[in-house]
Amino acid sequence: MTVNFALTPGQVNKAVETVIKNNPVYTDMLAFYGPLFDAQEESKTRLRIEPLQIADDVRAVKTQEKFPLIEIKDFAYDKTESTNLFITIGRLAQEANPKLAASASILIKAVDTNLEPERLFNAILNGNEALFENVSEALDIEKQVLGFMTYNSLKPSLCTGADQLSAYLSKDEPWLKGYCPICGSAPIISILEGEGARSLICSFCWHPWSVKRVYCPFCDNSDNKDLHYLFNEEEKDLRVDLCDKCNKYLKTIDTRQVGRLIYPPLEQVSTLHLDFKAQEEGFEPGVKLFMED
Ligand SMILES: [Zn+2]
Ligand SMILES: [Zn+2]
User: In the chain, how many domains are there?
Assistant: First the structure.
C-alpha cells in the first residue's frame, strides 16, 4: 500500500494536529479524541495477545468460499490492558461533553464496586446487546456511551489481532468483497490510492483490504450508472461515494490529494460534516456506529 498511515503514537498526534489546522471546527471534538487515540496507540505497544492459529486446510476452504478468517467472537483481547483503557477513556470522557461526562463518571464508580468490564468486553464479542440494555438501565446511563467506551477499550486488541491474522491472507489474490476478510464486518471508510487502487477499512477491526474502484460494498454493485459521489472543490481530499441501488453511502479519503499522514479512526470522526451532507441527500450510512458526537 502506498498510503502514509500514521502508525506510532507520535504520528497519530501529528495527524490530529494537521486535521485541527485544516479544519478548526473539529478542535473541541479532537480535544477528546486526540488523547483517546493516543491512549489506544500507547496501549497497543503493551498488549499481550496470543496469536490465533488457523490450520492450513481451514484457511484454504475459507479463502475459496470467501469466508472471513474468523468470527467476531473469536477475537482475543488483553484483559488487563482493556480494563485499564476503560478507566482511562472514562476519565477522558469526564472532561468531554456533558452527555459523555455524566455516564462516564457513573461507569468509573461502578467499575470500583460491582461492574466487571470483562463482561462488557465479552458481550461485544458475542453480540450480547441485552447486557448493554441491562447495565445502562441499571446504572441509568446512556447505552451509547457504554457501548462506545467498551468498544474503544477493546479496539487496540482487535486491531492487533487483525494485524496478526492478516499474515494468513493470500497476497496474490485480492479479497475484492464488501466485507472484511478478517472478521466479516462492513467497511467504515474507504481510501483511494495512486493508480486507481482503492481500499476499504473494516468498521470493527480496522483491517484495510483492496476492492475495485467503482464498487458499492453494501450491495456488491459495480454498475457505474448507479454509483456516483458527492464532492466539494474546497476539500479535494474527501468525497462521499453514493449508491442508488441500496441507498447507502461511504466516506472516502483521496490520499492522492493529501500529503498528511492518514489515521483512519481520525478521518472517520473528522469528516462528520460529510455524514450530514450525505444524510441530507437521503442516503444512509452503511454501518451503525456506537457514538459519533
Ligand atoms: Zn474486520
Ligand atoms: Zn449499494
Answer: 2
To the nearest whole number, what is the mean pLDDT of the chain? 93
User: CA nearest 178: which of 212, 155, 205, 226?
Assistant: 212
Ligand 2 centre distance from Cα of residue 228 (Å)? 11
Helices marked H in 47-184: 56-65, 79-94, 98-113, 117-125, 129-139, 143-165
What's residue 290's pLDDT?
Answer: 55
**Is residue 135 located within the same domain as residue 227?**
no
| Distance between Cα 139 and ligand 1 center (Å) | 31
Ion ligand 1, residue ranges at CB < 5 A: 180, 182-183, 185, 202, 204-205, 207
Q: Would you state the pLDDT for residue 293? A: 39
* pLDDT recorded at residue 292: 44
- 240 C-alpha to ligand 1 centroid (Å): 21
> Which residue ranges of the chain lie beneath pLDDT 50?
1, 291-293
Please tell me the number of Cα atoms within 13 Å of 46 on its side-chain side.
12
249 CA → ligand 2 middle, Å? 8
Domain end residue (candidates: 104, 136, 168): 168
Identify the nearest ligand to the CA of 247 by its number: 2
Quick check: 189 and 264 in contact, CB under 8 A? yes
Q: Is the pTM of this model over 0.85?
A: yes
Q: Are residues 216 and 122 in the same domain?
A: no
So what's the pLDDT on residue 99?
86
